[in-house]
Predict the structure.
Amino acid sequence: MTAPSTGTAVAQPRLLQAAQAGDQDAFGRLVEPHQGELLAHCYRMLGSLHDAEDAMQDASLRAWRALARFEGRGSLRSWLYTIATNTCLSHIERRPKRVLPIDYGPPTDPHDGPGRPLVESVWVEPCPDAVLDLADGSAAPDARYELRESVELAFVAALQHLPANQRAALILREVLGFSAREVAEALETTVASVNSALQRARATLDDKLPQRSQQATLRDLGDEALRELVEGYMEAMGGGDVDAVVSMLAQDAAWSMPPLASWFRGHDEVRAFLAMYPLSGMFRWKHLVTRSNGQPAVGAYTWRADEGCFRPFALDVLTLEGDRIKEVTAFITRSAVERNREAFVRYPDEPVDAARVAAVFERAGLPGRLD
């Protein structure tokens, strides 16, 4: 993490004193430098940007109410992380675990159609890089994972398989670099319990995560090759060229579309799905490049004849293996779900609260329409 400037360090005691005396503006200025990293922490814990933002609001209120009791024996940053972590633990108790379709069930026969959407609270959601504003490298020398690596889709999804306390202990210790003693204090447990939780959590993550992170893959690929790959993907999708898209995929590539539970594995199955649905000719596409979860991503827009423009349909987050696409996770927008009931997939009659990716488009800096 970037160290606070000397001016900030000098001003902090004055801000703290004013905030403890009831100055809400001083409190806001005191915690603002930590907001970005705390939001990323809540996103790792909860697997959803929207849940993370709710947790941040709750944590800020808790911090404001407890500020008078902050005695400064530890750092303000550590104190805020303790509050944010315990707020997330409370949120986890009230909702189901989030997963990606690949972890939810077996692959689907493309001839059965994409299937029915499930409620949004089931799924891990994407988070634009612009929101997280993460620095390169690790948060601390003791951290085991890079900051960008720790928000990759596979990493966030793997975290959701951990029991809540293991998840918190691993993030605080291995991602953020807090000491075992600091983690124990934050979770109100012992150092021995923290170390035991870490051992179990590491074993689970080692089993769930791919051998190489996306950050290592992207560094090896290089900026120019990555640009060519993403542009080639957009050109092939925009032109409806099924063969060109499939040629860019790893042999065992997977294609999923939250909030749909269906997903497809391998060239033959993905080819059949693309030809029957998104590249069948029933859609007109345009694409814009962006980044999400530290990975290359593409905003996919479909033509709306009734509006005379292209509107957001999905955010395609690309997971790479070497110079091939290993996974396409196409987070379908709510508007796409609602507008394409007949053309794209069989939907239930009840309202569908999809992955809320329309809001993610805005947060990623992608426009809400293309003329």
